[in-house]
Amino acid sequence: xxxxxxxxxxxxxxxxxxxxxxxxxxxxxxxxxxxxxxxxxxxxxxxxxxxxxxxxxxxxxxxxxxxxxxxxxxxxxxxxxxxxxxxxxxxxxxxxxxxxxxxxxxxxxxxxxxxxxxxxxxxxxxxxxxxxxxxxxxxxxxxxxxxxxxxxxxxxxxxxxxxxxxxxxxxxxxxxxxxxxxxxxxxxxxxxxxxxxxxxxxxxxxxxxxxxxxxxxxxxxxxxxxxxxxxxxxxxxxxxxxxxxxxxxxxxxxxxxxxxxxxxxxxxxxxxxxxxxxxxxxxxxxxxxxxxxxxxxxxxxxxxxxxxxxxxxxxxxxxxxxxxxxxxxxxxxxxxxxxxxxxxxxxxxxxxxxxxxxxxxxxxxxxxxxxxxxxxxxxxxxxxxxxxxxxxxxxxxxxxxxxxxxxxxxxxxxx
Length: 415
What we know:
Layout: H1 7-14, H2 18-21, H3 25-37, H4 41-54, H5 59-72, H6 75-86, H7 92-107, E1 119-132, E2 143-146, E3 151-154, E4 164-178, E5 183-196, E6 204-216, E7 221-234, E8 237-251, E9 257-270, E10 280-294, E11 299-312, E12 321-334, E13 338-355, E14 360-378, E15 381-394, E16 401-414
Antiparallel strand pairs: 1-4, 1-16, 2-3, 4-5, 5-6, 6-7, 7-8, 8-9, 9-10, 10-11, 11-12, 12-13, 13-14, 14-15, 15-16
Helix pairs in contact: 1-3, 3-4, 3-5, 4-5, 5-6, 6-7
């Protein structure tokens, strides 16, 4: 029946026997495929995962489980399962189909059990709560020596490190439309509102919109171009805008690896009259690589590097800025529903003008580390605890700060 596309009939035949035959690999596999092909991808994941618990090497169950996650819009789990299917050395036709799915996942296109073209929509809602030891990214020193004055200056409380509890609300969505088999258009947006318990001055709202085009040159190579705009409100006041162009090329040279090369140009303009001296234009170029060590356990590592130049257009006292950055990360799965991750980054910045107030040319070195986990406790629901550490070391003391943030986020996806 399945081979002749009589999926509903197969489901009707098999379903009454589930209680008696649950745990039989071939029964669970066939019932899972029938559920998937009749549009019940959620039930299919349960059945196909049950088959894989008994036989982790069942190639058909692995591939169809990936398709089920793709249909649900769970891109990360779909990617992991497709990579696991590739690691089992499938036939040429299956390999091509898997790579096509992976290209669509990495390109951000929507799901669908059959990979059909058309218009796809996705969205999410999330709420987070946590503790931030430095909501204003300020120094912990109470006074700073200022060479131009020849004495130390006492800093106002608003210029010193401020710890606080916070609540964050977020929402977003994206719509994509397949123009043809290889090209699609997309439009999306996000909103994030963060409220501090006591330090209201540093509560903020952020709104982003993006749109662009992506084109698959092959099953393994993707081009993506987009325009983006962001409005940032601090303490309910319009603080700054950022607009930019982003370009990216992605290529999967093997089942385990993916290379990306990217570039961006961003125009940053402050609406607060006291901050317009910080207006800049920033250009970045970078490259990254992701390698899957073990697809079955979702174990992977990644690394990226970036170089950029920030042009001062507002007469900032420190002038233009040259920067480079490196970032590494790792992920590992535990069971079917939990992933652990860690990232670390380092970014030195060298400013190009002599700061006459502090009598030297500013040099900053920023380090950040994040540790967290994602628990997908229910289809399209996830809980994410995370802790981050940021340290900006500068030869000008007022720019030196340390920040810790611990949070837990509840998210609901819609596909």
